[in-house]
Amino acid sequence: MGTDVAKREFTGADRVQFRRQVSRGTEAIARMLADGLFTDQGEPPEPLLGMEVELNLVDDEMNPAMANATVLDAIADPDYQTELGQFNIEINVSPRPFVTDDTISLEQALRTSLNRAEDRASRTDNHLVMIGMLPTLTHEHFAHQWISANPRYDLLNRQIFAARGEDIEIDISGIPLGEQHPTERLHTTTDSILPEAACTSLQLHLRVAPEDFAAYWNAAQSIAGVQVALAGNSPFLAGTALWHESRIPVFEQATDTRPLELKNQGVRPRVWFGERWINTIFDLFEENTRYFPALLPVASDTDPIDELDDGRIPALDELRLHNGTVYRWNRPVYDVVGGRAHLRVENRVLPAGPTVVDTMSNAAFYYGVVRGLVESDRPLWSQMSFNAAAENLQSGARAGLEAQLYWPNVGWVRPDELTLRRLLDLADVGLRAYGVSGKARARYLSVIEGRCITHQTGSVWQRKAVVAREDAGETREQALCGMLRDYVTLMHEGEPVHTWSL
Protein backbone atom coordinates (compact mmCIF):
# COMPACT_ATOMS: atom_id res chain seq x y z
CA MET A 1 0.00 0.00 0.00
CA GLY A 2 3.00 2.31 -0.28
CA THR A 3 1.94 3.06 -3.84
CA ASP A 4 0.17 6.37 -4.38
CA VAL A 5 -3.28 5.74 -5.82
CA ALA A 6 -5.46 8.54 -7.13
CA LYS A 7 -8.89 8.92 -5.57
CA ARG A 8 -11.40 7.56 -8.08
CA GLU A 9 -14.26 5.19 -8.76
CA PHE A 10 -13.62 1.83 -10.42
CA THR A 11 -15.63 0.29 -13.23
CA GLY A 12 -16.20 -3.31 -14.19
CA ALA A 13 -13.77 -2.83 -17.06
CA ASP A 14 -11.10 -1.67 -14.57
CA ARG A 15 -11.53 -4.86 -12.61
CA VAL A 16 -11.37 -7.10 -15.66
CA GLN A 17 -8.21 -5.38 -16.88
CA PHE A 18 -6.61 -5.50 -13.44
CA ARG A 19 -7.39 -9.21 -13.04
CA ARG A 20 -5.82 -9.86 -16.43
CA GLN A 21 -2.72 -7.89 -15.52
CA VAL A 22 -2.30 -9.68 -12.19
CA SER A 23 -2.69 -13.02 -13.97
CA ARG A 24 -0.12 -12.01 -16.58
CA GLY A 25 2.18 -10.87 -13.79
CA THR A 26 1.85 -14.26 -12.13
CA GLU A 27 2.76 -15.91 -15.44
CA ALA A 28 5.75 -13.59 -15.67
CA ILE A 29 6.94 -14.63 -12.20
CA ALA A 30 6.75 -18.29 -13.22
CA ARG A 31 8.71 -17.63 -16.41
CA MET A 32 11.34 -15.57 -14.60
CA LEU A 33 11.80 -18.37 -12.09
CA ALA A 34 12.19 -20.91 -14.88
CA ASP A 35 14.59 -18.71 -16.87
CA GLY A 36 16.78 -17.66 -13.94
CA LEU A 37 16.12 -13.94 -14.35
CA PHE A 38 16.36 -12.98 -10.67
CA THR A 39 19.44 -11.24 -9.32
CA ASP A 40 20.36 -14.06 -7.00
CA GLN A 41 19.57 -17.06 -9.18
CA GLY A 42 22.27 -19.66 -8.66
CA GLU A 43 24.25 -17.74 -6.04
CA PRO A 44 23.61 -16.91 -2.38
CA PRO A 45 22.25 -13.38 -1.94
CA GLU A 46 24.21 -10.83 0.02
CA PRO A 47 22.67 -10.84 3.51
CA LEU A 48 20.68 -7.62 3.84
CA LEU A 49 18.62 -6.54 6.83
CA GLY A 50 15.75 -4.20 6.09
CA MET A 51 13.01 -3.03 8.42
CA GLU A 52 10.04 -0.73 8.77
CA VAL A 53 9.05 0.55 12.21
CA GLU A 54 5.59 2.02 12.74
CA LEU A 55 5.23 4.67 15.43
CA ASN A 56 2.39 6.26 17.36
CA LEU A 57 2.01 9.96 18.12
CA VAL A 58 0.83 11.35 21.46
CA ASP A 59 0.43 14.80 22.93
CA ASP A 60 1.83 15.99 26.27
CA GLU A 61 -1.10 14.33 28.08
CA MET A 62 -0.38 10.93 26.44
CA ASN A 63 -3.54 11.12 24.33
CA PRO A 64 -3.36 10.12 20.64
CA ALA A 65 -2.19 13.10 18.59
CA MET A 66 -3.90 13.43 15.20
CA ALA A 67 -0.89 15.27 13.86
CA ASN A 68 1.16 13.13 11.46
CA ALA A 69 1.23 15.84 8.77
CA THR A 70 2.51 18.40 11.27
CA VAL A 71 5.06 16.00 12.74
CA LEU A 72 6.38 14.87 9.35
CA ASP A 73 6.83 18.50 8.31
CA ALA A 74 8.82 19.08 11.48
CA ILE A 75 10.95 15.94 11.09
CA ALA A 76 11.66 16.74 7.41
CA ASP A 77 13.28 13.38 6.70
CA PRO A 78 12.24 11.22 3.69
CA ASP A 79 12.80 8.07 5.77
CA TYR A 80 9.64 8.98 7.71
CA GLN A 81 6.28 8.56 6.00
CA THR A 82 2.56 8.64 6.72
CA GLU A 83 0.55 5.65 7.80
CA LEU A 84 -3.18 4.94 7.76
CA GLY A 85 -4.13 6.90 10.89
CA GLN A 86 -3.32 10.51 11.60
CA PHE A 87 -1.80 9.25 14.88
CA ASN A 88 0.76 7.09 12.99
CA ILE A 89 4.00 7.54 11.11
CA GLU A 90 6.56 5.03 9.87
CA ILE A 91 10.33 4.98 9.54
CA ASN A 92 11.87 2.93 6.73
CA VAL A 93 15.35 1.68 7.51
CA SER A 94 17.48 1.28 4.39
CA PRO A 95 18.78 -2.27 3.85
CA ARG A 96 22.35 -2.88 4.85
CA PRO A 97 24.71 -5.85 5.11
CA PHE A 98 23.90 -8.28 7.88
CA VAL A 99 27.48 -9.16 8.84
CA THR A 100 30.13 -8.52 11.55
CA ASP A 101 29.02 -5.58 13.76
CA ASP A 102 26.73 -3.98 11.20
CA THR A 103 23.69 -4.80 13.33
CA ILE A 104 25.15 -2.73 16.16
CA SER A 105 25.83 0.19 13.81
CA LEU A 106 22.25 -0.13 12.57
CA GLU A 107 21.00 -0.01 16.16
CA GLN A 108 22.99 3.16 16.78
CA ALA A 109 21.77 4.76 13.55
CA LEU A 110 18.15 3.91 14.35
CA ARG A 111 18.42 5.33 17.86
CA THR A 112 20.02 8.52 16.54
CA SER A 113 17.33 8.94 13.90
CA LEU A 114 14.48 8.37 16.36
CA ASN A 115 16.00 10.77 18.90
CA ARG A 116 16.32 13.45 16.25
CA ALA A 117 12.75 12.86 15.10
CA GLU A 118 11.47 13.02 18.69
CA ASP A 119 13.32 16.28 19.28
CA ARG A 120 11.72 17.87 16.24
CA ALA A 121 8.27 16.42 16.96
CA SER A 122 8.41 17.72 20.54
CA ARG A 123 8.73 21.27 19.20
CA THR A 124 5.17 20.81 17.90
CA ASP A 125 4.06 19.47 21.33
CA ASN A 126 3.83 15.93 19.96
CA HIS A 127 5.86 12.84 20.79
CA LEU A 128 6.79 9.48 19.22
CA VAL A 129 5.92 6.21 20.94
CA MET A 130 7.30 2.85 19.80
CA ILE A 131 4.64 0.43 21.04
CA GLY A 132 2.54 -2.34 19.52
CA MET A 133 -0.81 -0.74 20.35
CA LEU A 134 -1.35 2.69 21.88
CA PRO A 135 -3.19 2.03 25.17
CA THR A 136 -4.91 5.43 25.26
CA LEU A 137 -6.72 4.88 21.95
CA THR A 138 -10.49 4.81 22.35
CA HIS A 139 -13.42 4.07 20.07
CA GLU A 140 -13.71 7.79 19.25
CA HIS A 141 -10.28 7.71 17.60
CA PHE A 142 -11.55 5.25 14.96
CA ALA A 143 -13.84 7.82 13.32
CA HIS A 144 -13.39 8.23 9.57
CA GLN A 145 -12.18 11.82 9.99
CA TRP A 146 -8.91 10.59 11.49
CA ILE A 147 -7.77 8.72 8.37
CA SER A 148 -4.56 10.25 6.97
CA ALA A 149 -4.97 12.83 4.24
CA ASN A 150 -3.34 10.83 1.43
CA PRO A 151 -6.21 9.75 -0.90
CA ARG A 152 -4.98 6.16 -1.07
CA TYR A 153 -6.04 5.52 2.52
CA ASP A 154 -9.58 6.77 2.10
CA LEU A 155 -9.82 4.85 -1.16
CA LEU A 156 -8.73 1.64 0.55
CA ASN A 157 -11.24 2.30 3.32
CA ARG A 158 -14.08 2.78 0.84
CA GLN A 159 -13.16 -0.32 -1.14
CA ILE A 160 -13.06 -2.55 1.94
CA PHE A 161 -16.48 -1.32 3.04
CA ALA A 162 -17.85 -1.69 -0.49
CA ALA A 163 -16.72 -5.33 -0.48
CA ARG A 164 -18.04 -5.95 3.03
CA GLY A 165 -21.33 -4.09 2.73
CA GLU A 166 -21.66 -3.40 6.47
CA ASP A 167 -19.79 -1.89 9.42
CA ILE A 168 -16.72 -3.67 10.75
CA GLU A 169 -17.18 -5.57 14.00
CA ILE A 170 -14.37 -5.96 16.53
CA ASP A 171 -15.13 -8.70 19.05
CA ILE A 172 -12.28 -9.96 21.24
CA SER A 173 -12.30 -11.60 24.67
CA GLY A 174 -9.15 -10.88 26.62
CA ILE A 175 -6.87 -12.55 29.14
CA PRO A 176 -7.65 -11.65 32.80
CA LEU A 177 -5.09 -9.32 34.36
CA GLY A 178 -4.84 -11.65 37.35
CA GLU A 179 -6.62 -14.33 39.32
CA GLN A 180 -8.90 -11.78 40.98
CA HIS A 181 -9.73 -10.00 37.72
CA PRO A 182 -12.55 -10.89 35.34
CA THR A 183 -12.12 -11.57 31.64
CA GLU A 184 -12.66 -8.35 29.69
CA ARG A 185 -14.27 -8.13 26.28
CA LEU A 186 -14.05 -5.53 23.53
CA HIS A 187 -17.14 -5.61 21.34
CA THR A 188 -17.64 -2.61 19.08
CA THR A 189 -18.44 -1.66 15.53
CA THR A 190 -16.82 1.00 13.39
CA ASP A 191 -17.46 2.66 10.04
CA SER A 192 -13.76 2.89 9.18
CA ILE A 193 -10.77 0.57 9.05
CA LEU A 194 -8.88 2.72 11.57
CA PRO A 195 -8.65 -0.09 14.15
CA GLU A 196 -6.05 -1.41 11.69
CA ALA A 197 -4.01 1.74 12.35
CA ALA A 198 -3.95 0.83 16.05
CA CYS A 199 -1.74 -2.13 15.10
CA THR A 200 1.77 -0.67 14.93
CA SER A 201 4.34 -3.20 13.89
CA LEU A 202 7.95 -4.01 13.15
CA GLN A 203 8.21 -5.37 9.62
CA LEU A 204 11.36 -7.31 8.75
CA HIS A 205 12.56 -7.91 5.20
CA LEU A 206 14.98 -10.58 4.06
CA ARG A 207 16.13 -10.88 0.46
CA VAL A 208 16.51 -14.51 -0.58
CA ALA A 209 17.45 -16.48 -3.65
CA PRO A 210 14.36 -17.71 -5.56
CA GLU A 211 15.22 -21.36 -5.01
CA ASP A 212 15.41 -20.72 -1.24
CA PHE A 213 12.25 -18.66 -0.90
CA ALA A 214 9.92 -21.52 0.03
CA ALA A 215 12.23 -22.76 2.78
CA TYR A 216 12.59 -19.28 4.32
CA TRP A 217 8.84 -18.62 4.14
CA ASN A 218 8.01 -22.00 5.67
CA ALA A 219 10.56 -21.40 8.42
CA ALA A 220 9.11 -17.96 9.15
CA GLN A 221 5.62 -19.45 9.38
CA SER A 222 6.91 -22.14 11.74
CA ILE A 223 8.15 -19.68 14.36
CA ALA A 224 5.44 -17.01 14.19
CA GLY A 225 3.84 -18.19 17.42
CA VAL A 226 7.15 -18.10 19.28
CA GLN A 227 7.90 -14.62 17.91
CA VAL A 228 4.70 -13.02 19.18
CA ALA A 229 4.90 -14.79 22.55
CA LEU A 230 8.43 -13.51 23.18
CA ALA A 231 7.81 -10.00 21.87
CA GLY A 232 4.20 -9.25 22.90
CA ASN A 233 3.69 -5.50 23.39
CA SER A 234 0.01 -4.84 22.63
CA PRO A 235 -2.22 -5.74 25.61
CA PHE A 236 -4.71 -2.84 25.68
CA LEU A 237 -7.15 -1.24 23.27
CA ALA A 238 -10.10 1.06 23.94
CA GLY A 239 -9.64 0.74 27.70
CA THR A 240 -9.86 -3.06 27.58
CA ALA A 241 -7.31 -5.70 28.58
CA LEU A 242 -7.12 -8.04 25.58
CA TRP A 243 -4.42 -10.44 24.38
CA HIS A 244 -0.69 -10.14 25.03
CA GLU A 245 -0.32 -9.38 21.30
CA SER A 246 -3.73 -7.95 20.45
CA ARG A 247 -2.52 -6.70 17.07
CA ILE A 248 -3.12 -10.18 15.68
CA PRO A 249 -6.92 -10.41 16.24
CA VAL A 250 -7.52 -6.67 15.80
CA PHE A 251 -5.77 -6.58 12.42
CA GLU A 252 -7.55 -9.74 11.30
CA GLN A 253 -10.96 -8.26 12.12
CA ALA A 254 -10.32 -4.65 11.07
CA THR A 255 -9.52 -5.52 7.45
CA ASP A 256 -12.01 -8.35 7.01
CA THR A 257 -13.91 -7.79 3.77
CA ARG A 258 -16.26 -10.71 4.42
CA PRO A 259 -19.77 -10.34 5.82
CA LEU A 260 -20.95 -13.17 8.06
CA GLU A 261 -22.42 -15.15 5.16
CA LEU A 262 -19.08 -15.33 3.34
CA LYS A 263 -17.29 -16.31 6.56
CA ASN A 264 -19.75 -19.16 6.96
CA GLN A 265 -19.00 -20.26 3.40
CA GLY A 266 -15.30 -20.51 4.20
CA VAL A 267 -14.18 -17.60 2.01
CA ARG A 268 -10.58 -16.77 2.86
CA PRO A 269 -9.86 -13.59 4.87
CA ARG A 270 -7.52 -10.90 3.56
CA VAL A 271 -5.43 -11.07 6.73
CA TRP A 272 -4.23 -14.59 6.31
CA PHE A 273 -1.75 -16.98 7.82
CA GLY A 274 -2.22 -19.31 4.87
CA GLU A 275 -3.35 -22.91 4.61
CA ARG A 276 -0.34 -24.99 3.55
CA TRP A 277 3.43 -25.20 3.33
CA ILE A 278 4.71 -24.05 -0.06
CA ASN A 279 7.19 -25.35 -2.62
CA THR A 280 7.90 -22.07 -4.44
CA ILE A 281 7.04 -18.39 -4.19
CA PHE A 282 4.81 -18.93 -7.22
CA ASP A 283 2.39 -20.79 -4.92
CA LEU A 284 1.66 -17.59 -3.00
CA PHE A 285 1.23 -15.30 -5.98
CA GLU A 286 -1.02 -17.89 -7.59
CA GLU A 287 -3.17 -18.00 -4.44
CA ASN A 288 -3.45 -14.20 -4.53
CA THR A 289 -4.71 -14.40 -8.10
CA ARG A 290 -7.15 -17.26 -7.49
CA TYR A 291 -8.67 -16.33 -4.16
CA PHE A 292 -8.68 -12.56 -3.66
CA PRO A 293 -10.65 -9.97 -5.66
CA ALA A 294 -8.95 -6.65 -6.27
CA LEU A 295 -9.41 -3.87 -3.74
CA LEU A 296 -7.58 -1.23 -5.79
CA PRO A 297 -7.87 -2.25 -9.47
CA VAL A 298 -5.56 0.36 -10.96
CA ALA A 299 -4.28 -1.18 -14.21
CA SER A 300 -1.92 -0.14 -16.97
CA ASP A 301 -1.66 -1.35 -20.56
CA THR A 302 1.89 -2.65 -20.15
CA ASP A 303 1.94 -6.41 -20.72
CA PRO A 304 4.62 -8.02 -18.50
CA ILE A 305 5.06 -10.95 -20.88
CA ASP A 306 5.79 -8.52 -23.73
CA GLU A 307 8.32 -6.84 -21.43
CA LEU A 308 10.09 -10.16 -20.94
CA ASP A 309 9.99 -10.92 -24.66
CA ASP A 310 11.69 -7.58 -25.28
CA GLY A 311 14.45 -8.37 -22.80
CA ARG A 312 13.24 -6.08 -20.00
CA ILE A 313 12.51 -6.90 -16.38
CA PRO A 314 8.83 -6.09 -15.76
CA ALA A 315 7.77 -3.87 -12.84
CA LEU A 316 4.61 -5.97 -12.27
CA ASP A 317 2.84 -2.95 -10.77
CA GLU A 318 -0.55 -4.66 -10.65
CA LEU A 319 0.79 -7.84 -9.04
CA ARG A 320 2.65 -5.80 -6.42
CA LEU A 321 -0.36 -3.58 -5.67
CA HIS A 322 -2.62 -6.62 -5.34
CA ASN A 323 -0.06 -8.39 -3.14
CA GLY A 324 0.01 -5.31 -0.91
CA THR A 325 -3.70 -5.72 -0.14
CA VAL A 326 -3.43 -9.39 0.83
CA TYR A 327 -2.17 -9.12 4.39
CA ARG A 328 -0.25 -12.32 4.99
CA TRP A 329 1.65 -12.47 8.27
CA ASN A 330 4.65 -13.54 6.18
CA ARG A 331 4.29 -11.93 2.79
CA PRO A 332 6.17 -12.49 -0.48
CA VAL A 333 7.66 -9.36 -2.01
CA TYR A 334 8.72 -8.91 -5.64
CA ASP A 335 10.80 -5.82 -6.31
CA VAL A 336 13.00 -4.34 -9.00
CA VAL A 337 16.04 -2.30 -7.99
CA GLY A 338 18.42 -0.91 -10.58
CA GLY A 339 16.70 -2.90 -13.30
CA ARG A 340 17.25 -6.20 -11.52
CA ALA A 341 14.51 -8.28 -9.91
CA HIS A 342 14.72 -9.84 -6.49
CA LEU A 343 12.48 -11.57 -3.94
CA ARG A 344 12.01 -10.93 -0.24
CA VAL A 345 10.20 -12.48 2.69
CA GLU A 346 8.42 -9.78 4.70
CA ASN A 347 7.79 -10.81 8.30
CA ARG A 348 4.83 -8.87 9.75
CA VAL A 349 3.90 -10.53 13.06
CA LEU A 350 6.02 -8.43 15.45
CA PRO A 351 4.92 -5.32 17.35
CA ALA A 352 6.96 -2.15 17.50
CA GLY A 353 9.08 -1.44 20.60
CA PRO A 354 9.50 -1.20 23.46
CA THR A 355 13.08 0.08 22.91
CA VAL A 356 15.56 0.18 20.08
CA VAL A 357 17.61 -2.65 21.58
CA ASP A 358 14.44 -4.74 22.02
CA THR A 359 13.58 -4.08 18.39
CA MET A 360 17.02 -5.15 17.22
CA SER A 361 16.89 -8.23 19.44
CA ASN A 362 13.53 -9.26 17.99
CA ALA A 363 15.01 -8.86 14.52
CA ALA A 364 18.19 -10.80 15.32
CA PHE A 365 16.24 -13.65 16.89
CA TYR A 366 13.98 -13.90 13.85
CA TYR A 367 16.77 -13.80 11.27
CA GLY A 368 18.91 -16.22 13.24
CA VAL A 369 16.25 -18.85 13.93
CA VAL A 370 14.95 -18.75 10.36
CA ARG A 371 18.46 -19.24 8.93
CA GLY A 372 19.13 -22.01 11.45
CA LEU A 373 15.93 -23.83 10.51
CA VAL A 374 16.59 -23.51 6.77
CA GLU A 375 20.02 -25.06 7.16
CA SER A 376 18.88 -27.85 9.50
CA ASP A 377 19.27 -31.42 8.33
CA ARG A 378 15.53 -32.02 8.33
CA PRO A 379 13.09 -29.16 7.74
CA LEU A 380 10.96 -28.38 10.79
CA TRP A 381 7.91 -27.92 8.59
CA SER A 382 8.17 -31.53 7.44
CA GLN A 383 7.61 -32.56 11.06
CA MET A 384 4.56 -30.50 11.98
CA SER A 385 1.24 -29.75 10.36
CA PHE A 386 0.52 -26.33 8.96
CA ASN A 387 -2.50 -26.09 11.26
CA ALA A 388 -0.21 -26.54 14.26
CA ALA A 389 1.84 -23.53 13.15
CA ALA A 390 -1.33 -21.48 12.67
CA GLU A 391 -2.63 -22.47 16.10
CA ASN A 392 0.74 -21.57 17.64
CA LEU A 393 0.38 -18.02 16.30
CA GLN A 394 -3.04 -17.59 17.87
CA SER A 395 -1.97 -19.17 21.16
CA GLY A 396 1.27 -17.18 21.41
CA ALA A 397 -0.52 -13.93 20.64
CA ARG A 398 -3.27 -14.63 23.17
CA ALA A 399 -1.36 -15.98 26.17
CA GLY A 400 2.19 -14.73 25.56
CA LEU A 401 4.80 -16.51 27.65
CA GLU A 402 2.03 -18.57 29.31
CA ALA A 403 1.03 -20.12 25.97
CA GLN A 404 1.34 -23.81 25.22
CA LEU A 405 2.87 -24.26 21.77
CA TYR A 406 3.36 -27.46 19.80
CA TRP A 407 6.92 -28.21 18.72
CA PRO A 408 8.14 -31.36 16.92
CA ASN A 409 10.04 -33.84 19.10
CA VAL A 410 9.13 -31.79 22.17
CA GLY A 411 5.34 -31.77 22.25
CA TRP A 412 3.52 -29.03 24.13
CA VAL A 413 5.89 -26.48 25.60
CA ARG A 414 5.92 -22.91 26.82
CA PRO A 415 7.70 -20.46 24.48
CA ASP A 416 10.21 -19.34 27.12
CA GLU A 417 11.25 -22.93 27.86
CA LEU A 418 11.46 -23.77 24.14
CA THR A 419 13.60 -20.70 23.52
CA LEU A 420 15.99 -21.36 26.39
CA ARG A 421 16.36 -25.05 25.58
CA ARG A 422 16.58 -24.92 21.79
CA LEU A 423 15.97 -21.72 19.91
CA LEU A 424 18.66 -19.45 21.36
CA ASP A 425 21.34 -21.91 20.26
CA LEU A 426 19.67 -22.23 16.85
CA ALA A 427 19.53 -18.44 16.50
CA ASP A 428 23.21 -18.20 17.37
CA VAL A 429 24.05 -20.76 14.67
CA GLY A 430 21.96 -18.88 12.11
CA LEU A 431 23.44 -15.47 12.92
CA ARG A 432 26.94 -16.92 12.78
CA ALA A 433 26.13 -18.29 9.31
CA TYR A 434 25.26 -14.77 8.21
CA GLY A 435 28.58 -13.52 9.54
CA VAL A 436 27.21 -11.60 12.51
CA SER A 437 29.94 -10.98 15.10
CA GLY A 438 30.03 -12.73 18.47
CA LYS A 439 29.66 -9.34 20.17
CA ALA A 440 26.44 -8.59 18.29
CA ARG A 441 25.06 -12.11 18.76
CA ALA A 442 25.66 -11.96 22.49
CA ARG A 443 24.14 -8.48 22.79
CA TYR A 444 20.83 -9.29 21.13
CA LEU A 445 20.29 -12.91 22.11
CA SER A 446 20.97 -12.05 25.76
CA VAL A 447 17.96 -9.71 25.60
CA ILE A 448 15.73 -12.57 24.40
CA GLU A 449 17.20 -14.80 27.10
CA GLY A 450 16.53 -12.10 29.69
CA ARG A 451 12.84 -11.96 28.80
CA CYS A 452 12.56 -15.72 29.18
CA ILE A 453 14.34 -15.76 32.55
CA THR A 454 12.53 -12.76 34.07
CA HIS A 455 9.27 -13.74 32.38
CA GLN A 456 8.75 -10.12 31.31
CA THR A 457 7.85 -8.84 27.86
CA GLY A 458 6.49 -5.41 27.00
CA SER A 459 2.98 -6.76 27.38
CA VAL A 460 3.69 -8.32 30.78
CA TRP A 461 5.17 -5.04 32.04
CA GLN A 462 2.21 -3.00 30.76
CA ARG A 463 -0.31 -5.32 32.38
CA LYS A 464 1.55 -5.34 35.72
CA ALA A 465 1.85 -1.55 35.68
CA VAL A 466 -1.87 -1.05 35.08
CA VAL A 467 -2.80 -3.54 37.84
CA ALA A 468 -0.48 -1.76 40.29
CA ARG A 469 -2.03 1.61 39.50
CA GLU A 470 -5.58 0.32 39.74
CA ASP A 471 -4.79 -1.39 43.05
CA ALA A 472 -3.58 2.04 44.24
CA GLY A 473 -7.00 3.52 43.45
CA GLU A 474 -6.64 4.84 39.91
CA THR A 475 -9.36 4.41 37.29
CA ARG A 476 -8.58 2.40 34.15
CA GLU A 477 -8.23 5.63 32.15
CA GLN A 478 -5.81 7.10 34.72
CA ALA A 479 -3.88 3.85 34.95
CA LEU A 480 -3.42 3.55 31.19
CA CYS A 481 -2.30 7.16 30.86
CA GLY A 482 0.12 6.91 33.80
CA MET A 483 1.48 3.59 32.57
CA LEU A 484 2.08 5.05 29.12
CA ARG A 485 3.91 8.05 30.58
CA ASP A 486 6.23 5.70 32.50
CA TYR A 487 6.61 3.56 29.37
CA VAL A 488 7.74 6.55 27.31
CA THR A 489 10.29 7.52 29.97
CA LEU A 490 11.73 4.00 30.04
CA MET A 491 11.63 3.78 26.25
CA HIS A 492 13.88 6.85 26.04
CA GLU A 493 16.24 5.52 28.72
CA GLY A 494 16.72 2.59 26.36
CA GLU A 495 17.29 -0.37 28.68
CA PRO A 496 15.62 -3.59 27.43
CA VAL A 497 12.11 -4.22 28.71
CA HIS A 498 12.99 -7.29 30.76
CA THR A 499 14.95 -4.99 33.13
CA TRP A 500 12.10 -2.49 33.64
CA SER A 501 10.68 -2.11 37.13
CA LEU A 502 7.26 -0.69 38.02
Polypeptide structure, described:
The chain is of the alpha+beta class. 45% of the residues lie in helices and 17% in strands. The chain has 17 helices and 15 strands. It has helices at 12-35, 68-75, 102-122, 151-164, 213-222, 224-231, 247-254, 260-264, 281-291, 304-309, 317-323, 356-374, 386-399, 415-434, 438-454, 458-471, 476-493; strands at 48-59, 80-82, 88-97, 126-129, 168-173, 185-190, 201-208, 236-237, 240-241, 271-272, 327-328, 330-337, 340-351, 405-407, 411-413. The strands form five sheets. Strands 1, 2, 3, 4, 7, 12 and 13 form a seven-stranded antiparallel β-sheet that branches. A hairpin with a 3-residue loop joins strand 14 (405-407) and strand 15. The radius of gyration is 22 Å and the shape is globular. The two termini are 39 Å apart. The model has no long low-confidence stretch (mean pLDDT 93).
Explain briefly what this protein structure is.
With 502 residues, the protein is of the alpha+beta class. Helices cover 45% and strands 17% of the residues. The longest helix has 24 residues, at 12-35.
